[in-house]
Hints:
- The chain has about 425 residues and is an alpha/beta fold.
- It has one domain (about 5-170, about 260-410): Alkaline Phosphatase, subunit A (3-Layer(aba) Sandwich).
- It is built from twelve helices and 16 strands.
- The chain has helices spanning about 10-15, 85-95, 115-125, 150-155, 170-180, 185-200, 205-215, 220-245, 260-280, 305-310, 315-340, 400-410; strands spanning about 25-30, 50, 65-75, 130-135, 145, 150, 160, 165, 285-290, 295-300, 305, 345, 350, 355-360, 375-380, 390-400.
- A hairpin with a 2-residue loop joins β5 (about 145) and β6 (about 150).
Amino acid sequence: MALPLLEAMLPQSAQAATSAKKAPVRMAFFYVPNGVHLPAWHPGGKTGPLGQLPETLQPLTSVKDHLSVMTGLTCDKARPNGDGAGDHARSAAAFLTGCQPRKTPGADIKAGISVDQYAAQQVGKNTRFASLELGCERGAQAGNCDSGYSCAYSSNIAWSSENTPVAKEVDPRLVFDRLFGNGNNVEMAETRQRRDRYQKSILDFVLEEAKTLQTRLGVKDQQKLDEYFTGVREIEKRVELAGRTVEAPKGFTPPTGIPQDYADHIKLMLDMLVLAFQSDQTRVASFMFANEGSNRSYKQINVPEGHHDLSHHGKDPGKQAKLQLINRFHMEQFAYFVEKLRSIPEAGGTVLDNSMLLYGSGISDGDRHNHDDLPILLVGRGGGKISSGRHLVYPENTPLNNLFLSMLDVMQVPVHSLGDSTGRLNNLA
């Protein structure tokens, strides 16, 4: 079972300088579909310190000093550029790649390597998993999903090569087993059966070793280990509970472990990403709240209409108000994740201090289907290399991929260009 970094794991000379030890930098990309209601998003004004946050961003108020709101960034390759309709598919496919996806419903898909996968190929050798791809809505990898574009484009933002999207995992139980199993499918299945039979936690199987280990740890390490085990135990209980309470329709067996409530599903997945970062099992991740073009309804916040339908609001105030509620709901879940990372101390500050979390969409206004002035947030300080708490305004049509080059620099991943990048953003520090 993976453990967080403890002082006892370091040489004595390193233990003496733990406070000065450099923690790893993580990067994660969070995607929301269908754009946003811009009047409730934009802070307004020129580049400068953030004042009171607009309505949609207010859930991030407590972490405002870690927040950079970016205005003016563009994903040109999500535009038609001669290919006609299909903005939703192009938006997801081009979001992290900056490449024009080939318009095809067949197997000959083509986009480009995404920034997360480029980073994973360089820094992934340092962790158990090069990257994690998570989400809350299953997606097809074939078929026509948007005006002649393959469903693979709408369902994925991570691409390991120009022809290979990296499918996301949506089942929290499978993610948990992946993080805390031993990689042997047969042994993992046997262990799961034993745990289910005796209703024991994964922690019960390592409790003896844990008790022995704790006798050799200092006070700080004991506290850190207790907090870590408590977090694992709580999430495992929630995964088990979700698996027991899902009610399947007649004749249909649902995938065990996915909660019926969308917010619970999101938080379970985000909690496991927290654990993956905390235990340094990966330093690169992506998360899709839903597939691009998703028409999911949000009855839990009194919005029974479909998200995609509402995004085509035609400036109807009622539809815009409901769209903003959906935007706010997504932001509340993201804020939950951000605050979790801020609560975890590590050398040099907190996990949030040593992270870069990009949140946004490949569409700006869902009614216009435009791809300029995208809603983009960058949260975290990248190990002290990012100056946050600001609204950053860029010239019209500045490529989003310019930001990605700067983020790769923070990760110490050398790259000259990526997708449609034209240079780096020089004012992040």
